[in-house]
Amino acid sequence: MSDPVRHTRFLVSRLSDIGLPTKHGRGESFATGELPLMATPFQTLDQPMVTSAARFYTLGHNKLKFHEPALFFDLPALEISRCRSVADIESLLRRAWSRHIKDLRAAREWLVSLGAEPRLAARGGRLLLPLASEQMPPAYVRSASELQIPSGGPLADVSLGDPRERRHRPLRSLEHSSELELGLSAEIVRLARQHARKPAAASKPVETAKSDLVRTPRILVLDDEAITLAMIETALSVRGFAVDTFQDATRALDAFHQRSYDLVLADARLRRVDGLEFTARLQELAGIEKLPVVVVDDRANSATERAAQAAGATAYIVKPVSWEDAGELLSDMMDATDWRRFVRYGLRLPAEVRMGSSNERELTQSVARGGISLRTRRELIPGSIDRYRLRLPRPLPTIEVDAAAVMCLTQPGAATLLAGLRFLQFHGDGETHWIRLIEELARRTANRRRQSR
Length: 453
Fold this sequence. Notes:
Layout: H1 3-17, E1 22-24, E2 31-36, E3 53-59, E4 63-68, E5 78-79, H2 86-113, E6 119-121, E7 126-129, E8 139-143, E9 146-148, E10 167-168, H3 177-196, H4 199-203, E11 218-222, H5 226-237, E12 242-246, H6 249-255, E13 263-267, H7 275-282, E14 293-297, H8 302-311, E15 315-318, H9 323-335, E16 345-346, E17 350-355, E18 358-368, E19 371-376, E20 385-391, E21 398-410, E22 417-426, H10 430-452
């Protein structure tokens, strides 16, 4: 039984236990259902929305994605592992909707302060920013820190493989709506030109691509106060991050033996190992080159800030934390390309990818915690997603992982293409086995360095 089927059956069973029936989708890799709702209307920026039910489909083993009424599709998938009744799920949905409307209200106030004229849509459930150019359709406003680049106009025939490419984060230092519009228009033109360079490749179908599969950024949070951890987890989860929380530094370090993280958030003042010592120890982990680390302090202290930087911290912030601003900071740090998070190790591993009814066997050139570089004869499209079967050295097993092509390079005289792949999702215990491989490669590298001295 595949993991998607097993996860779906688990979630269907949980929903059935609390009295919420579902129906299996094709292949049992997901299920659909309908959540009955109380008569209380959902507030919007205009007319309240009244609906008696909300349709959803399952994601993994603990999330529901609501899609009908269509306005609910704007909400992130809801994690329901702590819900014990249908009423709990409805309460979770209503809280998510309230946060969404609160973000839209704050965004409208900010846009008006810049002199923009945002427009309500869908009876006040959506906010649009009209652009002056007739060729540009309006942009969807998600919040004061994020606008969605419109898919029409210059991008009408462009398929963006990475949904993050449609995310425009305006500078908070803007003083006029014209600056916002210029920045947004420039980004649209840049994307259109970038993808226009590969028209033939962009139109070629890839049978195994799963364009709706996106890796959720992972954040590890370390704080010895359970209440603080719960608040941070809630604040970051609603902003689309996957969050693992720890009260003990040793356990937080041990977590890196099972999975990798995109960013670490650590309190500066812990009872045992303080956040600065923890930050320094992160740099010693196998396969870590420079991981973004944010140190959070109870009060501003220049000496602590300098010590945090010396220990390897990327940023230093002071409580109380504005999570709207902090969420933007964390996203920018994870999107930054001016450093490499994970060490690359040269290693040739057999890699198999399914292409329709046939199998393609290829070889990796290098491996890292977050992905691989692959020698291939296929014409990979940046953004395309495939499932790869990687045969690890014994005694480690063969594992499967979904990965997206992030870059493709051709070399003069070479018959193969060098493709950089970023891991999106491991299947089964694949990530734990993969990290064991990385740890072994790190040990071998360290031994060779010692012997060469």
